[in-house]
Design brief:
42% helix; 23% strand; three-stranded antiparallel β-sheet; five-stranded mixed β-sheet; DNA-binding transcriptional LysR family regulator; DNA-binding transcription factor activity; 3 domains; transcription regulation
């Protein structure tokens, strides 16, 4: 078999386009023309000697080989960036202000902060775990440099990268039958975070459309309180499958009588169009950690 040496610059274009969900956005991010991006993608398929993309509606989808290529591209780029960091990483200095939704505080934050601090000991990080509305407000008022948050049409910022749409799901206590059913005798007890909450709004809207009566049985300022109420059986709640503790589990809508729920966008917001080197490096580590942590739905 002929030995193939992949072009890292081409792989970065490929990975960036898939990360942003658009190769037009990748062209802007990388400072290249769309024709140059197209040429690089064509070169990637030539180097791989197989089809990476397939037509899907008006856009492109990955073939099985393309999915494999994307996973290896990310690993190769990570190794390349680690090598660059080992040589020059300690030169970065400054201050980065990072915000995250509570769903990610325990799952992603330790890994991201640890990796970044080891590579860039001269950069100080101020991290804040907060609700969506506060994170968006701090990004738009330039009190945060980066924020990882849930997003819908009402929570857009001028400089943001859409990472992935995750399905919302009804959640009940672990160990209970997954085919738990809505009672016809009383309103559905609903546990949620304090308003404003994108997931609470999605839950009540879905219930109203389905004609299912509900009552607010528990309101919490934090996820810890929400999980405690759910485990205690005070009500069902709505989250994404990401980061669910073992004490709770998703319910099956078709079996439970609960209505289907929409997906929720996960977005990395930036306060500035062009980030300083330290912020850009933290954003890169954050995006990779998210991709590694979130399974394919």
């Amino acid at each position: 078999m002929r030995r193939i040496t992949f072009d890292l610059d081409v792989l970065r274009t490929f990975a960036t386009g898939m990360e942003l969900g658009s190769f037009a956005k990748a062209a802007v991010r990388l400072g290249r023309s769309t024709s140059a991006i197209s040429a690089q993608l064509k070169k990637l398929e030539q180097q791989a000697e197989t089809s990476i993309f397939v037509k899907s509606g008006r856009g492109l989808a990955l073939t099985e080989a393309g999915e494999t290529m994307l996973a290896y591209a990310r690993r190769l780029l990570d190794l390349n960036d680690e090598a660059a960091t080992a040589i020059h990483g300690s030169e970065l200095a400054g201050w980065v202000r990072l915000g995250l939704q509570e769903d990610f505080g325990e799952t992603i934050l330790p890994e991201v902060l640890g990796q970044f601090a080891r590579a860039h000991p001269k950069v100080r990080i101020e991290a804040r775990v907060a609700r969506n509305a506060e994170l968006i407000d701090r990004i738009t008022s330039d009190r945060l440099d980066l924020a990882l948050a849930w997003s819908d049409a009402s929570a857009r910022t001028p400089h943001s990268d859409h990472i992935k749409d995750l399905p919302m799901c009804w959640v009940g206590p672990a160990g209970e039958p997954r085919n738990w059913r809505v009672s016809a005798d009383e309103p559905l007890p609903l546990a949620s975070l304090e308003a404003p909450c994108l997931l609470r709004t999605a839950a009540t809207s879905a219930l109203d459309r389905a004609g299912i009566p509900w009552r607010q049985s528990f309101v919490s300022p934090s996820l810890a309180g929400l999980w405690a109420a759910t485990v205690a059986g005070l009500g069902v709640t709505v989250r994404t499958p990401f980061g669910l503790p073992p004490s709770v589990q998703p319910l099956v809508p078709a079996d439970s009588g609960l209505p289907p729920l929409p997906s929720l966008g996960l977005v990395l917001h930036r306060s500035q169009a062009q980030s300083d080197p330290a912020t850009a490096r933290l954003a890169s580590i954050m995006l990779q950690a998210v991709h590694n942590a979130i399974p394919t739905y």
